[in-house]
UniProtKB/TrEMBL annotation:
This is Glucose-6-phosphate dehydrogenase assembly protein OpcA. Residues 326-346 have a biased composition (Low complexity). Residues 167-297 form the Glucose-6-phosphate dehydrogenase assembly protein OpcA C-terminal domain. Residues 52-161 form the Glucose-6-phosphate dehydrogenase assembly protein OpcA N-terminal domain. Residues 354-364 have a biased composition (Polar residues). It comes from the Bacteria.
Length: 374
């Protein structure tokens, strides 16, 4: 059900929500947080709302959309309330702000926040340079941006690095969860050798590729080269150099990757490019500071950028052994959870290492110096 309230006020919107709550009963109160979406009014607004609706099925919430309209128009607030099948497992309040009100989104949001519930702010497209200092960002415990959706993704990532504040995160980082899980799981298999160097290859404007290189540099304390791929989308391949041979994870088609390492048959791994709704749902699972993301941002300054585009095979290599079972995303996530369990401390002997990984962070079987967030 969609209810339009043209030329209205936040008081009238709140009164209508109370009326709907009385009609719907206690189920209207089953919300765990308030998700505030900040964007310019346009065709992409519905895409953000659809992603929030899908994520709300895992995290029932009140979604408030601040859609900024033409600033030269007369000051006006047009509201729309969506409940039931048009709002997933949430209730959606769309606020279209025009004229002077376009810059007063925080004032319009405050009366509609759920009492005693955390607030998460999400900028699905263009985001402020300092989300924590934005008026709406100050209201939120978590602030989610997406550097991949901005005009210059790499520059946007550099801005995130410069102005990081506890509570900030980026969906370009969330898209790495499966990659980090598979890489951590691959190094949990023998031989337990030190990784001496790494190369991460991907599109030139892929912020996720940069973040994966920064994560490896921060966690392994090794030289990491960030190369540009001649073909492929997003992250294309990762190569980890070890004494016995390289560990290679290649995904040329953006769907299925192939993991090869010495002494093991080649294995196919599910590495489908993740949808925004899946990344958003993952980010809503926690409201504390994203310390692994902060550490990865610090590691961006340690990567070495290659100049020559790297050619990657258009098709994944054929597994060495016929009938080798594929590794699904669920298997990778399960391996990551196992690796996240506390491991015995290193006994100091050569070749002995530890591993740590999870839905938020994954490490390798290599000693890591203690640092912030670890």
């Amino acid at each position: 059900m969609i209810i339009d309230l043209p030329s209205t006020t936040t008081s009238q919107v709140n009164s209508k929500l109370v009326h709907l709550r009385e009609q719907g009963g206690a189920t209207a109160l089953g919300r765990v947080l308030t998700l505030v979406i900040v964007t310019d009014d346009g065709a992409k607004t519905e895409d953000a709302i659809d992603a929030a609706n899908d994520a709300s099925r895992e995290h029932p919430c009140r979604v408030i959309v601040v859609a900024r309209g033409a600033r030269k128009a007369a000051a006006r607030l047009d509201a729309q309330i969506r409940v039931g099948g048009d709002a997933g497992a949430s209730e959606v309040v769309v606020l279209r702000l025009y004229g002077a009100l376009a810059d007063e989104g925080a004032g319009c949001v405050i009366p509609l926040l759920l009492p005693d519930a955390p607030v998460v702010a999400w900028w699905p497209f263009e985001a402020p340079a300092k989300p924590a200092e934005d008026p709406i960002g100050r209201l939120a415990q978590r602030r989610i941006t997406d550097s991949a959706a901005e005009r210059n993704p790499i520059k946007a990532l550099e801005v995130r690095q410069k102005h990081y504040t506890d509570g900030d995160t980026d969906l370009a980082w969330t898209r790495l969860t499966l990659w980090r899980a598979v890489l951590a799981a691959s190094l949990d298999l023998p031989p337990y050798e030190k990784v001496t160097a790494a190369t991460v290859t991907g599109e030139g404007d892929s912020p996720s590729t940069d973040l994966l290189a920064g994560w490896l540099a921060a966690r392994l304390r090794i030289p990491v080269k960030r190369a540009k791929a001649a073909t492929g989308q997003g992250i294309v391949s990762v190569v980890l150099e070890r004494k016995s041979g390289a560990v290679e994870l290649v995904r040329p088609d953006g769907k299925v990757g192939t993991l090869t390492q010495p002494g093991q048959p080649a294995r196919r791994v599910a590495l489908q490019r993740r949808e925004v709704r899946d990344c958003l749902a993952e980010e809503l699972r926690r409201l504390d500071a994203d310390e692994p993301f902060e550490e990865t941002l610090q590691g961006l300054g340690k990567i070495v950028r290659g100049r020559t585009p790297v050619k990657v095979p258009s098709k994944a290599p054929v597994p060495e052994q016929a009938g080798t079972p594929a590794v699904s995303a669920a298997d990778a996530a399960s391996a990551a959870e196992d690796a996240a369990k506390p491991s015995p401390k290193s006994n100091g002997k050569a070749g002995k290492t530890s591993a740590k990984s999870g839905s938020r962070t994954a490490g390798t079987r290599q000693p890591v110096k203690s640092g912030k967030g670890k």
